[in-house]
Amino acid sequence: MATMDAIDRRLLAELQDEGRVTNVELAQRVGLTAPPCLRRVRALEDAGVIKGYHAELDASKLGFAITVFALVSLKSQAEESLRQFEDHMRTLPEVRECHMLNGEIDFILKIVSRDLQSFQEFLTSKLTPAPNVASVKTSLTIRTAKQLPGVPLEG
Prior knowledge:
Elements: H1 6-17, H2 23-30, H3 34-46, E1 66-74, H4 79-90, E2 95-100, E3 107-113, H5 116-127, E4 133-140
Antiparallel strand pairs: 1-3, 1-4, 2-3
């Protein structure tokens, strides 16, 4: 998208905070009428700035009691090896995020699991034997002080 003005940024901030807001309510919040508001939102969607809409779920209420971060080092950093690892991570529903890093560690993963035993089974049967994995270091989340989706949008 070539140019975004203050209204576009306000639209994005409102939608990022509350994706289910109606177009009429959204238009009121940003000082537009409904038709131009809808046109702007659709333009932001078409430009790929808005990639989708999601419900925020409470993992613990759905039986996923633990969140683990795993630092993964690979045996090879050749592009094909990186792609194979990433492709494998996409097939594992427990892996909620997979980020390639620069430096000593190749990837950081965010993994959810029902309990420690389930995580141990996942670690030994799916993650450690994954393509090209040299080592895995894990840290169990004790509590989360902040978890915000998206990016900071200043008006």
